[in-house]
Amino acid sequence: MDKLLIRGCGPLAGEIRVSGSKNAALPILAATLLSSEPVLIRNLPHLHDVTTMIALLRSMGTELIVDERLGVEINGSTTTKTTAPYELVKTMRASILVLGPLLAHFGHAKVSFPGGCAIGSRPVDQHLRGFEAMGAIIDIDEGYITARAPEGGLKGAHVLFDMVTVGGTENVMMAAALAKGRTVLENAAREPEIVDLAHCLIAMGAKITGHGTATITIDGVERLNGCTYSVMPDRIEAGTYLVAAAASRGSIRLRDIGPETLEAVLVKLEEAGAKIESGADWITLDMEGRQPKAVNIKTMPYPGFPTDMQAQFTAMNTVADGVSHVTETIFENRLIQTHEMNRMGAKITIEGNTAMIKGIDRLKGAPVMASDLRASASLVIAGLVADGETLVDRIYHIDRGYECIEEKFLALGADIRRVAN
């Protein structure tokens, strides 16, 4: 099991390109199962989770071709199995996203029930209630979800989600694309990745309106066609590098990223003292050598502050000027990385779902262990602003969501390398 060895350095500075979005790529790959024609997906990030989703599609007999530009052409008509086995689903929770497309296109699906997650519970009951509203018969037995469409296929329905659910919105929206009649999703998630999935489905011939709002309307069509689609840039990756630069008192320029997807993050970085400029597909941040100011954050569903950026801002606040409060409202265990930061000299106390952080000038390097994807990124940031060496263990979490993280930080002047266990 590899680790990352980081030696604390001065301000980060440089330019990097933002990779394709993991959180958009996974549902878009699942959506290709809705079509009987080839779908070419471009700008896929080279990540473990993406590889797992491709392996899951292959396990169902789906033919895939990787082209010279590293795009993936997927031919849903070749799918011969509608079962997603435990061996693959257990390694990636997003595997549940094949349930809706399989159910809508083939009329039946069997998907291993996803397990828990280090950051907290993420039940799939909202997904299943949406399918049941469309007439599906759902059964859970021996760890598998078995779903069967009614005679004549899924039917349009009114679905009111009890809570905002990104995965549930994606799964039910994909199923509704081939349902008979109109489906209306209320209290739908509004994340940019939802919008990206809708744009891909529309390119395939789906009829969808309202994506990006709390009410999404889908008029089912008889079939979806093939298309070529490019995955949106990864706003969380972009935010992570922006925060790393801010924490180190440095400067950075990001290419291939739309600032409109990062409004809540950019507002907080400006509050921390960063000078930010942006264009249609670029963002620059410059701390002009200044220590960041402590900022209070509270995670909320989009367009609020993203839970996937909480850990990174917590790391920045450990070396910020002042006292801050970080409140996590989405996942109950997502402050777990603060215990590792305290091993590095951070002054963080936890009360309920809120961390109170008293900023100091520098952290101290130490061996630390990542508990989840975003926590691992926050520990890398902490290592970059610490004196001495920091060894981050269990970095397989990082490889799930950050493409070439060492190379990108090296391009910014960091002292970081991957070492064998």
Automatic annotation (TrEMBL):
Pathway: Cell wall biogenesis; peptidoglycan biosynthesis
InterPro entries assigned to the protein according to its UniProt record, in alphabetical order: Enolpyruvate_Tfrase_dom, Enolpyruvate_Tfrase_sf, MurA_subfamily, RNA3'P_cycl/enolpyr_Trfase_a/b, UDP_GlcNAc_COvinyl_MurA
Keyword Chaperone carried by entry: no
Gene Ontology, cellular component aspect: cytoplasm
Catalytic reaction equation(s): phosphoenolpyruvate + UDP-N-acetyl-alpha-D-glucosamine = UDP-N-acetyl-3-O-(1-carboxyvinyl)-alpha-D-glucosamine + phosphate
2-(S-cysteinyl)pyruvic acid O-phosphothioketal modified-residue sites: C117
Pfam families: EPSP_synthase
Protein EC: 2.5.1.7
Residues that bind phosphoenolpyruvate: K22, N23
A single MF term (Gene Ontology): UDP-N-acetylglucosamine 1-carboxyvinyltransferase activity
Source organism superkingdom: Bacteria
Gene3D superfamilies: Enolpyruvate transferase domain
UniProt: UDP-N-acetyl-alpha-D-glucosamine binding residues: R93, R122, P123, V124, D125, Q126, D308, I330
UniProt KW Transferase keyword: yes
Keywords assigned: Cell cycle, Cell division, Cell shape, Cell wall biogenesis/degradation, Cytoplasm, Peptidoglycan synthesis, Pyruvate, Transferase
Subcellular location(s) per record: Cytoplasm
NCBIfam families: murA, PRK09369.1
Entry function: Cell wall formation. Adds enolpyruvyl to UDP-N-acetylglucosamine.
Name of this chain's protein: UDP-N-acetylglucosamine 1-carboxyvinyltransferase
Taxonomic source organism: Zhongshania antarctica
Lineage of origin: Bacteria, Pseudomonadati, Pseudomonadota, Gammaproteobacteria, Cellvibrionales
The gene coding this protein: murA
